[in-house]
Amino acid sequence: MMEFSEKLTTLRKQAGLSQEQLADRLGVTRQSVSKWESGAALPELVKLISLSEMFDISLDYLVKDFMDEPGQVGESSPDTARLEQKVDDLTRYVKGSFYAYDSNTKI
Predict the structure, then answer these.
(1) Could you tell me what percent of the chain has a pLDDT over 70?
(2) pTM metric for this prediction
(3) Which of 5-14, 61-70, 71-80 comes out lowest in average pLDDT?
(4) CA 11, CA 27: separation in Å to the nearest integer?
(5) Picking from 2-16, 43-57, 89-103, which range would have the lowest pLDDT averaged per residue?
(6) How many domains does the chain have?
(7) Does residue 9 lie within any of the structural domains?
(8) Any idea what the CATH number is for the domain that residue 18 is in?
(9) Which of 3, 17, 34, 106 could form a disulfide with 21 if both were Cys (CB 3.0 to 4.6 A apart)?
(10) Would you say the C-alpha torsion 42, 44, 47, 49 has a positive or negative sign?
């Protein structure tokens, strides 16, 4: 299980970037990147979004400790499959496979 600081360090090194180069691309100081990588601080949301776009990874992967491997876009997890089934069920329900009650009372 990798924490944000470890993921950021790994991603930066895989991209062949120094802390200074990453800082320049994000518009922050090298000290900020150093603090993120040491776990002393976390970036603001806008910087997290920039990092996810820069490294082509999801925000979920970047910030959730329990996600060790970045998934491919469109890859289904058991949770995704359950969510998709619920959406399908709700869609069928809304499209008319439910009981309708028509009252004879006029308002």
Answers:
(1) 71
(2) 0.63
(3) 71-80
(4) 18
(5) 89-103
(6) 1
(7) yes
(8) 1.10.260.40
(9) 17
(10) positive
